[in-house]
Design goal:
Length: about 140
């Protein structure tokens, strides 16, 4: 199993939207105003990282039990062609970022990739995503 620690960079993050109650939002703004955090985002990121730290053992155990790749996983055209030549298929199971190279034709992806399960982000061309639409979970 390949494990890569994720250190967010500008291109390695995904934007999410959350809804908060006005009381929670007010308390966040108060902590920002008092200088505990630079801004709302800083507090939210810190809270998320703290919770991920609290549950780190559960994440590690689940990744191991389910044979998931944790981190960044890229699938190249060459890798997929080798699998095709060997008459093998691929089950993509990633916690983090899974990327299928932009030069992978949709026909190759459809022939080799049996299923895609990504908890995080999945990057591929729109043609490849369309070819795998029924296999993405």
């Amino acid at each position: 199993m390949s494990v890569t620690e994720l250190k967010p960079r500008v291109g390695d993050s995904e934007k999410i939207t959350i809804n908060l109650g006005v009381v929670d939002l007010g308390q966040i703004d108060l902590l920002v105003q008092e200088g505990f955090y630079a801004n709302r985002t800083d507090l939210i990121r810190t809270a998320i990282r703290n919770q991920l730290g609290v549950h780190a053992d559960v994440v590690k155990q689940t990744v191991t039990r389910k044979s998931l790749v944790l981190g960044l996983q890229t699938y190249s055209r060459q890798q997929l062609e080798k699998l095709q030549a060997a008459n093998e298929t691929l089950q993509i199971q990633v916690v983090g970022l899974a990327t299928i190279a932009s030069d992978v034709p949709p026909e190759l992806a459809a022939a080799v990739i049996e299923s895609v399960t990504v908890l995080g982000a999945f990057h591929a061309t729109s043609a490849v995503k369309a070819a795998l639409a029924g296999r993405i979970h």
